[in-house]
Amino acid sequence: MERADAVVIGAGVVGLAVARRLAQTGRDVIVLEATASIGSETSSRNSEVIHAGIYYPQNSLKATLCVKGKEALYSYCESHGVLHRRLSKIIVASTPDEVPALSALKEKAENNDVRDLQWLDAGQARALEPEILVEAALLSPSTGIVDSHGLMLAFQGDAEDAGTMIAFNTTVLGGDVLEDGILLRVGGEAPMELMCRSVINASGLQAQDLAAAISGMLSEIIPMRRLAKGNYYLLAGASPFSRLVYPIPEQGGLGVHATIDLAGQCRFGPDVEWVEHLDYNVDPQRADRFYDAVRRYWPGLRDGALLPGYAGIRPKIASPQGDADFVIQGRGTHGVTGLINLFGIESPGLTASMAVADEVERMLREEG
Length: 368
Ligand SMILES: Cc1cc2nc3c(=O)[nH]c(=O)nc-3n(C[C@H](O)[C@H](O)[C@H](O)COP(=O)(O)OP(=O)(O)OC[C@H]3O[C@@H](n4cnc5c(N)ncnc54)[C@H](O)[C@@H]3O)c2cc1C
Prior knowledge:
The chain is an alpha/beta fold. 28% of the residues lie in helices and 28% in strands. Flavin-adenine dinucleotide binds next to helix 1, strand 19 and helix 9.
């Protein structure tokens, strides 16, 4: 049996941010990753948007960690040469009956300490984005985009410089809570047992299954996983927009919006498709719904202009009607010293990753 100080399970953006943070505070960190590379699951299947923190309930972890994480991420990207752009975004009410929802969003944002939103009338909005159908809009100057892979490489580099070891093709199968730590059973290329002082379960979509495989963890406090697939379609041709364009949010997601990547490619999505299994194929037929959704705010979308892109799957813990928060469980919740479970780290998890890492570090430090 091998011994380890802090073991992070999962090398997505959150696991890497946590590994970096813990290593920089002097912990000996090992990251165990089931696949052959960093960020091969949800962290490479998202919109790469640095969110402002507008949509989330006041005082929720999503709200507070998004706002803190956004600031930390911008300054990290600037100091570490990670590609990003403060493109800004516009949230569009396309009909008069959507305007009250836009006002409610502005109030929600202010409650979350997002104070830079600007209310635009139709003329002001069209001066910024001439192609949109708009009744009124909100401009969010602090929304941006980031090269998520570049960010993860930078986190990995910092973590490794501080002594972290990352083991790829190494799947954690389960574990036992013992008197003097947590014993992990590790499969993959070099199966072994690893006795750990701290374990951070940052395994994203697998977090519930993994927690359930750790005996000594109360299974009743593992929140139920719900999978909400988000499909993207790419726009053939040049982007009609110079900033991100969002409709009024829908149940389970932010509405089919337009984002632009760092290469200038415009894409639409993600939508919300409740699924039972992990399947990343994008059905070309589904584009029909996208034409309707996008034309509500961009009537200029031509027939045949949308090409199937890619999909990501949100590791939700809410019911289809619900609006659940991130769940970060430590000893106070499950009674196990040294074990942190991260559940439901859907959007804005990329934006919040550095703030989530700070929170995990604080919880472990306070556990002693
Ligand atoms: C469609 C979509 C759009 C999104 N858009 C945005 C956005 O624009 N902005 C934003 O801020 N956030 C966005 N998000 C959220 C963001 O992508 C996630 O919050 C973030 O990527 C989660 O990172 P993670 O490290 O927790 O999980 P993951 O990236 O899923 O990483 C988990 C890792 O754990 C590994 N693993 C799993 N099981 C095991 C095991 N047993 N042993 C070892 N390793 C294991 C996996 O292989 C994987 O590498 C979006 C999410 C989706 C789905």
